[in-house]
Amino acid sequence: DVCSSYLSSGINAEYGDSDIVYKYATDSSLTIKKYGESLYNNIVILAPSVASFGNAVSANDFLTFLDDGGNIVMTANSDVGEPIKEIAAEVGVEIDDEGTAVIDHMNYDVSDVGDHDLIVADSFIPSPVIVGASPKPVLYKGVGMVADLDNPLVIDILRASPTAYSHAPNQDILEYPLAIGSSLLMVAGMQARNNARIVVFGSHDMLSDKFYNANVKAQGSDEDIQTAGNRDFASSVVDWALRRNGDLRFSNVKHNKVGEAPSDAAYRITDEVEYSIAIEEMRNGNWEPFKGSDVQLEFVRIDPFVRAFLAPDDDGVFKVGFKVPDVYGVYQFKVDYDRTGYTHLYSTTQVSVRPFHHTEYERFIPSAYPYYASAFSMLGGLFIFSFVFLYHKDTAVEKAKKTE
């Protein structure tokens, strides 16, 4: 039974038998959509060597499933078939040719039989939401992969060490390998712009009970033998791929003037404003308050006028206060959170900012005091001149001088 060795990955325990449908890859009744609707939320393909899927299901059908928001987990190995390679290539992951394997003469396990293709790998992506908080070294025996550099959505979940390369074991190297060193991927993922996820394991065996229960120690290492981290690593990655971890959602977006109730009324320039948004994170299949400390709010009118970090509380409510810019117009409260391992969180709320009404200006503006002084000094000068002109009287001597 090809499935029995892989059920301990936790998929069966998490979803229950009633929610899982098992199909052979060559089943003549295999179908993904019916009446224009996807039959499944997630698909796990444990058939790395399949030459063709049953019922004429093609790689494009799986890509359409991704476009519709579904998630895919699939495995490959050194005998990888063309359908698996085609699906991976379409999402930006190139799998090496059939018959090749990842080889590392410096980081192979002590139980390796001589080909140096039983690798001890620990170059995990620094993202606890994908690989767990403290992943242990894992055993790997499979094919190498490389990411398409033109696809920024590809995630390098597990890289090879700098001394690894991809080639057919026990054969002379006559051509440059597909990839060498850290550019060689062992496990790769991709999160599409619609937040659908796909993960490709380059090793079918790393998900088996044999590797789950194995001990690991790199040849020449001074460290003690320890249990392989395959079980925890696979469980974390599969949970992430099936969106049991790393999903974000928001609710209860509120904004208001400080000290007032939330309102849709326009704000006035220089008003003090409060903004809040509740964000939840899917963790182990349950929605919990999100605890991120790097969520930012932007107050945007074409360009951001204000950018500030939102402070979370224990209930996952993020808040910030700021002063509205002294430039009126149409603005947006914008939260655009995009981090590796998490779904893209995007929220915008449009508001208007008006200038002061003519009755709202201060009666006397301190910065205008010099102008006030100049105006009153001119009035005073005019009064003195008028007084002198009207009431000044020439003496008799001055009149005689004028007559002469």
Distance linking N and C termini? 139 Å
Uncertain runs are none
Number of contiguous helices: 8
Which structural class do you get from the secondary structure elements?
A: alpha+beta
Shape: elongated
Strand fraction: 25-35%
Chain-averaged pLDDT? 88
Total count of strands: 26
Largest sheet: 6 strands, mixed
Share in helix: 10-25%
Instruction: State the strand order across the main sheet.
Output: 3-4-14-13-11-8
- Radius of gyration in whole Å, from Cα? 35 Å
Task: Report what the structure shows.
The chain is of the alpha+beta class. The chain is about 20% helix and about 30% strand. It has 8 helices and 26 strands. Strands 3-4-14-13-11-8 form a 6-stranded mixed beta sheet, with helices on both faces. Strands 17, 19, 20, 23 and 24 form a 5-stranded antiparallel beta sheet that branches. Strand 1 (about 35) and strand 2 (about 35-40) form a beta hairpin. Helix 2 runs parallel beside helix 3 (about 80-90). The model has no long low-confidence stretch (mean pLDDT about 90).
